[in-house]
Amino acid sequence: MRTPLPPLINALLDPARYPDPAQQVELIETHASWLLLAGDYVYKIKKPIVLPFLDYGTLAQRRACCEAELGLNRRFSAQIYLEVVGITGSPENPQIGGPGTAIEFAVRMRRFAEAGRLDHLCRNGRLHAREISELAATVAEFHQRAASAPLSTRFGEPEQVLLPALENFKELPELLPGGEEKERLTRLAAWTGTEFARLTPHFAARKAAGRVRECHGDLHLGNLVLIDGQVQIFDCIEFSEDLRWIDVSSEIAFTYIDLYDQGQAGLACWLVNEWLSCSGDYDAVQVLRFYAVYRALVRAKVAALQARQANADLGQAIAYLALAERLVTPPPARLIITHGVAGCGKSRASRRLMLGDQAAATLRLRSDVERKRLFGLAPTANSQSAPGSGIYARGASDLTYQRLHALASELLAAGWSVIVDAAFLERSRRNAFRALAERLGVAFFIVAPQATPAQLRARVTGRREKGHDASEATLAVLERQLAQVEPLSADELKNLL
């Protein structure tokens, strides 16, 4: 039976109580808040409750949390979060923004179309790589601006990373009482303990490097919305510093497992790759799988609690358990390099491989992006380099391939498959990566798309006209490459994918 609404919320269902025109008022209730959708605006009122992780018990606490919510969310959604308003009068006869002493407070927000939320787009098959790229860039930019946790704070310390992970294994056995589920949790707990011991130096180093920041804390698809073609973040965690001051890798892991859970492993893979390409934080990959498993088990716990409250089955919770198991047992890593001149379709082919990865375990390194990063340039910046000079001189190319080799080695050792999207015109460069695969004991493949000379020239010309691409290849560069390319040997042809 539904709990009766308090008199204040009942009264605020009357459209006449609002300062702006509203034909009707829609109520959305969460475990911690009431959201009143009135005309073009939303009024969010916090419930007077105290939970282990949240304290809205007093009016002063609720006001402080409303003000914190406004300030924190205006970091990335100032056009949505407008103000904190007092509600005066009495619960039976309230007045929003009226004179006198406030009896309650609300966060006033600009309303947006719910159909634009990314969870709705995903379920309706309308979420594509384009929106995921926009999301990755938005999150990377937000993380870059967010404050870093001072070294003197507890945030991001290894023991603080382990504590919530262990809490999952204390609470889930009671929520998932089946013998099989307990055995699965025991295996996941053992993996978590082993991985934590191995990764402890990484957690400490990442905090020292400023990778623990004041993040959003709850970055699932339901807290992301597409407005006028731009992804907007909203509804961050304001009530817990421990849940908000986290490693940026833990932040992106939440969105990653949400996409994976909704059957969009390819988009999950694309998200991580686009975020890495924007941020350059490849060290995040070392701890990403640990955080992804933690996030999946948190979702399992929440789903189990909701099932218990609704007297429903535990199917969703068990599905999250299965997701965590898939994450800890990825397919064998493999190293894939591309081969070909500008315009042959290397990036398009590597994109297909990522979007088709049903394990969401493939990472791509683009020479065009990493070359620019080495020389302090944005991916789409024009270096003004002539063919064979500047950042494309022989020495610069050597540095670029050395960087790609070092990164590929680190990512493969962390258990991820890697695609190196580069021209690899010279056999010696290809042999260096083949040797890397042999040393690490991973499969080695070559992707070599083909195109006619006319197609190559048309693609290079078209890309230059459009702009906004990391590649700076011109027709002159193409002709130079065609003259220099060393074709694949008979032995290399055996590795074609």
From TrEMBL:
Residues of the Aminoglycoside phosphotransferase domain: 128-268
SUPFAM superfamilies given in the database record: P-loop containing nucleoside triphosphate hydrolases (SSF52540), Protein kinase-like (PK-like) (SSF56112)
Pfam name, any one: APH
Top-level taxon: Bacteria
InterPro entries named in the record: Aminoglycoside_PTrfase, Cell-binding_unc_protein, Kinase-like_dom_sf, P-loop_NTPase
Identification of the protein by name: Aminoglycoside phosphotransferase domain-containing protein
Source species: Candidatus Accumulibacter phosphatis
High-level lineage: Bacteria, Pseudomonadati, Pseudomonadota, Betaproteobacteria, Candidatus Accumulibacter
